[in-house]
Amino acid sequence: MPINRIKPFKDNLKKGLVYLISTPIGNIDDISKRAIDTLNSLDIVLAEDTRNSSILFKRIGVNPKKLISCFSYKEEELANKILNEVKLNNLTIGLVSDAGTPGISDPGAILVKKAIELNIPVSAILGPSAFIQGLILSGFNTANFSFYGFLPTKEQERERVLSNLVNKEETLIFYEAPHRLIKTIQSMQKVFKDRRCLICRELSKIYEEYIRGSLDELVNLDPSSLIGEFVIVIEGNNSASNQYDDEKIIQMAKLMLDEGISKSTCCKIIVNLTNLKKNYIYDLINKL
Ligand code: SAM
Q1: Rounded to an integer, what distance in angstroms lies between the CA atom of residue 82 and that of residue 91?
Q2: Which of 9, 162, 223, 241 is surrounded by the most beta carbons within 10 Å?
């Protein structure tokens, strides 16, 4: 693919554009003036759920020329159709989701991918996104982080996904539905043990709350006090690099082997203690 450079402002691109537009995640005053102006100027507004967006638009004074629903399951089909119209008639369109930033656990990514394929310029009018607020207020490493959105709903699958993240040194961020929060915190505690965690509740709303503690402590939260929307932020694994270097692991393994403990049991104990990968520990023990 040849290099493609687009400057929406410098080239004064007013038509034939696709915008992703953020909307509030709770507090309506978080809508930007640019978002309102742009929404009022678009030929077509795509909304994840037109019923929800219509309520918002009424309150912020947005009167879309044309409003079309774009639920996740029909994003691909709609993107193909709408983007052809954009090209044919030089239209400018925008997508809003029910709350926050489109494309973040919400429709948006497919529309952007297809627009790029069709050489249609894309831009964004940014605003709130729940995971950014959780990250910047976590007190954990904000330079390196990974956002995973929603975890699988089945316990076994969820714990398998989490196990693969145990050695990650960057901050880990997740979304969770209210009725699954406690179960997810329990899975996280099983995998990450006593790792530090921040649970953000109802960001930018009246019951906004930050619950900090170790996962060992947070599993005991009273479920009846956990109502609303949540972001979960977990501190990265500092122990993997600091507390247990190769030399320490070899020392531990030697002590255990000298006491007659088998290689496999020794490996199991060290994996449990360090949260490091089984194969990695096995290789170290086998070198002895
Ligand atoms: N696009 C949105 C964004 O940019 O944050 C996320 C949409 S996703 C379908 C909805 C999830 O985001 C919720 O289940 C919750 O985990 C998180 N979320 C959204 N608003 C929130 C809020 N006000 N407080 C805490 N979490 C929120």
Answers
A1: 9
A2: 162
Torsion angles phi and psi, residue 89, rounded to 5: -110, 10
Single pTM value for the model: 0.85
Task: Over range 35-52, report the average pLDDT.
Answer: 97
- Over residues 72-119, the pLDDT tens digits come to 999 999 999 999 999 999 999 999 999 999 999 999 999 999 999 999
The tokens of 277 are what?
């990968």
Tokens of 85: 């119209």
CA of 258 to the centre of ligand 1 (A): 52
Record the tokens describing residue 170, joined without a space: 């960057």
Dihedral-angle region of residue 195 (phi above 0 means left; psi in -120 to 50 means alpha; beta otherwise): beta
Q: Token pair of 12, please? A: 């004064």
Work out the angle between the directed axes of helices 109-117 and 75-89 (0-180°, nearest 10).
40
Q: How far is the CA of 202 from the centre of ligand 1 (A)?
A: 9
For residue 243, the tally of other CB atoms under 10 A from its CB is: 12
What pLDDT digit, counting tens, does each position of 123-168 carry?
Answer: 999 999 999 999 999 999 999 999 999 999 999 999 999 999 999 9
Q: Own/partner pairs for 62-70, CB < 8 Å, 24+ apart?
A: 62/36, 64/39, 64/40, 68/44, 70/46, 70/95, 70/107, 70/111
Distance in angstroms (rounded) separating the CA atoms of residues 67 and 83:
15
Q: What distances in angstroms separate CA 151 from CA 24, 159, 187, one per listed residue?
A: 23, 9, 11
Pocket test residue of 21, 22, 23, 25 for ligand 1, highest count of atoms within 8 A of CB:
25
